[in-house]
Design brief:
Layout: H1 9-18, E1 24-26, E2 32-37, E3 40-41, E4 50-57, E5 60-71, H2 74-77, E6 89-96, E7 103-105, E8 111-116, H3 123-138, H4 155-190, H5 203-207, H6 218-233, H7 239-248, H8 251-254, H9 263-275, H10 287-303, H11 328-344, H12 347-357, H13 361-369, E9 374-375, E10 383-385, E11 388-389, E12 396-398, H14 400-421, H15 425-437, H16 445-454, H17 463-477, H18 486-491
Parallel strand pairs: 5-6, 6-8
Antiparallel strand pairs: 1-2, 2-4, 3-4, 4-5, 7-8, 9-12, 10-11
Helix pairs in contact: 4-6, 4-14, 4-17, 6-7, 6-11, 6-14, 9-10, 9-11, 13-15, 14-15, 16-17
Length: about 500
């Protein structure tokens, strides 16, 4: 069920629990579904909404879990497709499914029917659910509940509280990175290759104390940075499949590819084939695309014998309502070039050297950030998707704004963790100070709205404050924790 469940899904839970043997549902393919047992509501832990349900599809009976979402897209939006806890789901139930998609996929790759139950709901309840959904969509824009009185809090308090939240958010990123580092190392130790084999972190792992000597393997650090970079390249809508791709086409596989003058193109071909994005080709293909696909298939045929994993589906990727610059095809092309730097130009070593030697923090920022501004070249300099030439030439696969995001969310916390593990606390402190002075070029509506409410418009470009504004809204305001917020304690006393 998880913390991501929306309030209005409670209505859908009630409807699901009222279904009996006399209710016949249908898949989009016309197969009949009989609900033999709706299952037990999951109130205790993260995971599917109903456990141990029984349904019959055609002549086959299935026993497993049920996940209920407002919209079909929530399956991927909430990360269920890469979460082992959802591997036992046997039916995905939704209220909305505008494009009539018939299936979702578990992390193990199993295909699950997805059905829409809006027809079972009365018109009054449909109206009520849509109204609640509309209110919740409006509530993601960053409007503080204390907007009318927030300025009553002292200016010094507003500033100091946001700065504190910004630092806490940085520390949360560091903790998340460290936990993933331990997991990658543990999987190496026990010889598990993910995500081909499903696994649960064992009790031995939970109790194990890690030391700096446990993290001597270069490929573990490379895999960790690779995953984090691809998550950042995926932006909000494609970060989950990008991380999955980085785990499927992992460092161990990529290092098996023979180094030559076309290695970047081979990486690009491998990533695109494993991503499933080459599975759906346009009916009309121009000469440049034909030539690109022929070469890509040639590269893949030479690489494929080294790959023993499975593949993503092309419907796992989002293109809708995304700026073409953020299309996964373009980001994967940029990612292939970063992978080359990571594996063959000692990207991690270069950054370590810069952190150690460059004293001026502004110079340090510009020097490291420039490593992640990737100029466009080759086929994807002229295309956003296969077979459709772009109206204007693409200048960058990864621009300065995205490089800022990579610096803030990946590089600074990653190397803060790295230096701390190996006992270089002064360099970790240096990176925290760098984060504290960082000024980003981009922002979003949440940051603007929180800044306006708190009278801190001059802080929207200062990363530590902008991150604090995001944390304030997401972890306090939107969760009605007003009296746990230092500003809320003052204005609502």
């Amino acid at each position: 069920m998880g913390s991501e469940s929306k309030f209005h899904e409670g209505y859908l839970y009630e409807i699901w629990q009222k279904l009996d043997h006399n209710t016949i549902l249908e898949t989009l393919n016309g197969e009949e579904i009989a609900v033999l047992d709706c299952g037990t509501p999951n109130h205790e832990s993260a995971g599917p909404d109903f456990k141990n349900a029984r349904i019959r599809i055609g002549n086959l009976t299935y026993v497993g879990d049920i996940e209920i979402d407002y919209d079909y897209s929530d399956w991927k939006l909430h990360g269920h497709n890469i979460d082992n806890k959802y591997n036992s789901v046997i039916l995905h139930v939704t209220f909305e499914n505008k494009n009539n998609h018939g299936y979702v996929y578990t992390r193990s790759g199993r295909k699950i029917p997805s059905i829409k139950i809006a027809s079972l709901i009365s018109s009054d309840d449909v109206k009520k659910i849509k109204e609640i959904h509309s209110e919740e969509k409006n509530n993601i824009s960053g409007i503080l509940k204390c907007s009318a009185v927030a300025l009553n809090a002292p200016s010094e308090l507003r500033n100091s509280h946001l700065y504190k939240l910004g630092i806490e958010r940085f520390n949360k990123k560091c903790n998340k990175i460290y936990e993933r580092l331990k997991e990658i190392q543990f999987l190496k130790d026990v010889g598990i290759k993910e995500p081909v084999v499903g696994y649960d972190i064992t009790e031995a792992f939970q109790k194990r104390e890690f030391h700096y000597k446990d993290f001597h393997r270069k490929d573990v650090w490379q895999q960790l940075l690779y995953e984090l970079l691809f998550e950042a390249l995926g932006y909000s809508k494609n970060k989950n499949p990008m991380v999955t791709l980085a785990r499927k086409a992992d460092i161990e596989f990529l290092m098996k590819i023979e180094k030559d003058g076309i290695l970047v193109q081979k990486y690009e071909s491998a990533l695109l084939h494993i991503s499933g994005l080459l599975n759906s080709l346009p009916k009309v293909i121009d000469e440049n695309t034909t030539d690109y696909l022929d070469k890509s298939r040639l590269y893949w045929n030479s690489i494929k014998p080294f790959y023993d994993g499975d593949y993503l589906e092309n419907n796992q990727w989002q293109f809708f309502r995304i700026r073409p610059q953020n299309f996964p095809t373009v980001r994967i092309a940029g990612g292939a070039r970063i992978i080359y730097q990571l594996l063959h130009n000692d990207l991690i070593g270069i950054i370590i050297k810069k952190v150690r030697e460059i004293r001026n923090l502004s110079v340090l920022i510009n020097s490291i950030r420039s490593l992640f501004v990737i100029k466009a070249d080759g086929y994807w300099k002229q295309h956003y998707v296969l077979g459709e030439p772009a109206s204007n030439e693409i200048k960058y696969f990864v621009g300065v704004s995205r490089a800022d995001e990579i610096m803030i969310n990946v590089i600074l916390p990653f190397f803060a963790v790295y230096f701390k593990i190996f006992g270089h606390e002064q360099l970790t402190d240096k990176l925290v100070k760098t984060y504290g002075i960082y000024e980003q070029r981009d922002d979003n509506q949440v940051i603007h709205n929180v800044a306006n409410a708190l009278g801190l418009q001059d802080k929207v470009k200062k990363t530590v404050y902008a991150q604090g504004m995001i944390d304030l809204f997401r972890n306090y305001c939107s969760k009605n924790k007003c009296l746990e917020c230092e500003i809320g304690k003052v204005v609502f006393e």
